[in-house]
Task: structure prediction
Amino acid sequence: MRRPVATALLCLSLVLLAFPLTLDKPGLPPNLKADEPAYYLMALSLARDGDLRLGVEDVDRLFREFPYARVQNLIAMSDDGWHTAYYGKPFAYSLFAAPFAGPFGADGLLLFNMVLLVAMMWMGATYLSRYNPDWLAAPFAAGFFLLSIAFAYGFWLQPEVFNMAAVTASLFLGFHRFERLGAGPKGALALAFLSGAALMPAVYNKPMIAALALPLVWMPMRERRWGRVVAWVLGAVVGLAAIAGLATALTGHPTPYLGVERQGLTVCAQEELPFEPVEAGPSTAVERSPTGGAWSWIFRVPRIEWRELTANLGYFLWGRHTGLALYMPFAVVALLLFLFHGRCSGARWLLLAGLGAVALFFLVFIPFNWQGGGGFVGNRYFVNVYPGFLFLVTRIRPRVLLPVGYAAGGVFLGAILLTPFGAAVPEPTLQFHTRNAPFERFPLELTLREVPGYHRVVIGDYQFIGRKDQVLPRGGNLWLRGSDRVELWLVGEKPIRRAVFQVRTPAPENRIRLEMGDQEEVLELDGRSPGRAVTRVTLEPGDTGLRGARGGGVPFVAHRLVVESEKGRTRPYTKHSPPNPCPGDTFGYTESVEETFLLGAELVYLGSAEDLERDVFHVAWHGVETRRRVVAGQTFYARVQLENASRAPWIASGAAAVRLAYHWLERPAPSDEPGEGREELRRPGRAGRMVIYDGLRTDLPLPVAPGQAVEVLQEIEAPEAPGRYVLEIDPVFEHVSWFSQRGAEPYRLDVTVVSAEAAEPAEPPEPPEPGKPGPSEPAAAGAAIAP
Result:
């Protein structure tokens, strides 16, 4: 490599190598994330203790550099019922990083990652200089590794960059002509041996990476250089055996994925181990792990759901959070260059096939988690083999593809590269960059089990998905941020023909635009006037729903709803912290905080127009058990048995659901009561003046099909004033009508309300036991004024 080019590359390398040691703590959030705790502690334990056993001294180390928050995912393993524990992650990365972690701690791990990135950059430039001028090879190699999520993972204290470096070294030795490295026959055998050995640390971490060995073995076989084939295979065997043997010496097991119990531990305090001995039993799966924390899932026969696989392939290529084109733009450039100049190379076709095999492995075996679990940026699993794309490249022609790759890196990766530690944004998340303009034009990965930064709220028959910084669930309603363009996804099992929403705004003279499928509605609302602050709108998206499958092939239809409001008003709300994972630890723990939200529109999904138009207003009563004498203002309960006598089901969830409610009416004095007594009380309006019209709501325990009976423990609040009342139990189809308004008879019964002083004894507010009335009054079913 010529001196000017080497000097420029050296200067860039020095920048990357110098700054890690100036950091107090590498990264935001200020605590260890994803799988970092185990890898970080393993490196320190190997450097300072020479073992991989999890002890009290290791737990204490967490709090020296990371005192900001408790650690909730320290993966550990045991084979003796948790009398002793070892780290439950592959140790190869931590072993090589230990010399850096020993003196420098977490910053040492970051320095080690930067050393690997710089080494990959130099190997890439050296390889490309075989086919291109140095001044072209060096910037391509620098852009390939730095303008991608490969650079972002340099700030993660876990083995993604380490695996990339192993792949790069193996391919560099395999694709580079040994003669150009000055190697004779024996030297060529040694380099082939090193190529096989170099790949094995990555294979030990993720066995599917072994697919990249195909071109490395095929090239010497094609040239009938059998000695090199044997040397490569021998290097691979020796490398893998050395790692597995050392793991056995340190932990008693060649890998942490076979023959042990594994779990994710929560570390709450110093001077104590986060686990307790238990009776040896079946394996404990890592918390939230879809694979059970063992390698057994690799050997099962997968069930392929083609619709799900097709959707995931699209997300893999251009998904908003995972797409290859967005997070690895130089991979696309490399593919184009391969098609222009390298398509006649059988070895590179095999390399491309190996890359495709790795991608398909994750897409087929874990279709709900192929991107890398809950903690990821881009495609965390596939980035391990990303360097393979570099070795598809020979000649860099046309040269305009180089600036195109840099421009794409700036558009899609600028927010990540310029804030590699994360960003302090509302509702912070590692995926905050997807809130920028280019990403909203790309599809949201609806097949994945978990994409951080989104609310998932089930309303009626649909799951509503929206960004946490834009959407605030409030019961069955959704607050949408004002002065913003809010995207919502409605995901369900069937398409929406006519969706009915109630829209309310607190802002004056607010213009709200709703777009769903082919339809757009513009609302002019005014929060200063109750009559103009709320309206109902029906959207007909047409046949625009995105169809797919997820979660084992379960089909779904997704509709995209965009709500854009010009104005908003700040509204206070209470933000609750997640449950405390450390029992008894309340020091410094904030249970809730007061926040403000710029509310532009309150959205209530009422359901489909077809559901709202159904005649559900027919009920058969089978009895009510409750108190006949209650204390004023007291909450009490009624055990209600009723039957759906209509031809349509009663929906039990969502804003427009069927719920039990009640009215309180004055009971006429005895001298004013008609002669027909109770029979007269059946007639609406003859019980006296309405005291309370809108009583408490009680949800049905489940959807009720036509002809099905259900028992409901209904919550009722007595009037504040003592007296003689009639209690009308009346179902309500929320946002549509009371049953009694559509001709159904409510269930009426007499109730006497007494003051607290007159109560003998005072009635407890707790619900009665199943099948029993209250302790002081007989059941009312026999004396009730039944319809």
In short: Residues 281-292, 672-685, 770-787 have pLDDT under 50 and may be disordered. Residues 453-611 form one domain.
